[in-house]
Amino acid sequence: MTRSAVPPRPGGPVGASAAAPPSGRPAQPSPQAPRGAQGQQGRQGQQRVKRRLAPSNTPSRLRLAIAVAVLASVLVGALGLTIGLQQSRLLGAVAERGQRVVALLDTRGNLVTADGTVTNAFLIGGLEPADLRATYDASLADGAAGLAALGDTPDDPEHLLAGASSDVAVYAGLVEQARANNRQGFPVGAAYLGQASRGLASGVLAPIDTVVSTTADATARDFNAVGGVVALAWLSFALLAVLVVVQIWLARRSRRVINVPTLVGTLVLLLATVVGTVVASSTASTARDTRTSSYQGSLAVSQALSLAGEARSDEAFTLIRRGSGGAYQEQFVAATEQARADLERAAEAAGDGDTDLVALLDAWVEQHAQIRALDDGGDWNGAVALATSRAEDSPSAAYDAFVTAADAQVTAFSDATDHSLRSAQWQTGVMGVVLAVAGLVSAVLCWRGIGRRLEEYR
């Protein structure tokens, strides 16, 4: 038996009876649906806020690009300024120390000349010639003044030169005693003179040699450091690469190939860095060339002059000792041979092969050989007469000719060294300032160029 279908209620929706629950109550909407939609909207809002605050956001990235570009530009400029100022300082130190070394050797030469003059005059006996007395006084005064002027050198922390200055006064006192006894014909005068000469060597010349060595070593370190500073330029190019990366990123992000202000700033800084690197490298090359040419030449000739002065004293003592001066003759030979080697080194450093000074030294050494031949042959008086002669073809004239030419050569070398180093010092100092200005210009242009893109996003 079949049941008849129940008709729907009037006004009710079709199929409502089918959707009704078994209890007959109408279906209620699910309470989770509205809350789920609201949660999703909240999460989306939070994500939008995070995107605004995150550095991955384009405006934030642009701000970061500005900071990176400005910082890189400033660092390149600061590095260029550091290179320029450091090279300039080192070149100034080299020039000052180089002049100090030459001054020390000149002071040493004056003192040795004084000793050589007084020993040569001692051979004459009695009252020495006025010109020799004047030469001795002038050389000793110049040597003492040089020690006093150089006493505060930073390369003499133990104040050796101050002690040497005191010993110069002791030397002068012994020389006066030797003279006084020699004028009266007392043999003890020779003992005083020998004591004075030995005291000069140990108490004055030795400390000067120590300070010369210390100063020359410090100068060599400064010369080496001038070239080492150039290596910092590679860091500048690494920082410039950062600017190029910023340019590429900006072109991709803004869909524009060129950001004119940033490009101009980068090119200005690149050009300044390239020119600055060339100047720094050229400065280092100039320092190397100066070191191996005029600087070495001035040292070599100055040392040869000083050695020749010592040899002149030894020449006189070979006669003062009368047959027992063999040790002084050996010292003469050693000193003149070393002086000759120094002069050959100076000619090689000059690059012109000029051996005029060597020839002048050899001429004097040949004259000395004549003195020794007379003395060794038993003609002591003849040897003394030749050694003290003031004739144009005498040993003294040959020695004076060598000293005059060597002094002129030292002055020429020293002036060339100072001019070369001072010119390079000025150039590298200007280069550092130019690089610093270029870095600031690049920083401003990068800030303005990238800032325009940032304004577009705003």
What would you say this structure looks like, in words?
This protein has 458 residues and is mainly α. Helices cover 82% and strands 0% of the residues. It is built from twelve helices and no strands. It starts with 15 loop residues before the first helix and ends with a helix. Residues 1-33 have low confidence and may be disordered.
The helicity comes to over 70%
Structural class estimated from helices and strands? mainly alpha
Please state roughly what percent of the residues sit in beta strands, choosing from under 5%, 5-15%, 15-25%, 25-35%, 35-45% or over 45%: under 5%
Choose one word for the global shape. Answer: elongated
Count of helical regions: 12
What's the SSE pattern? HHHHHHHHHHHH
Number of individual domains: 1
Main sheet makeup? none
Could you tell me the mean pLDDT? 85
Unreliably modeled segments: 1-33
Number of strands: 0
Distance between the termini: 81 Å
Gyration radius (Cα, Å) is 44 Å
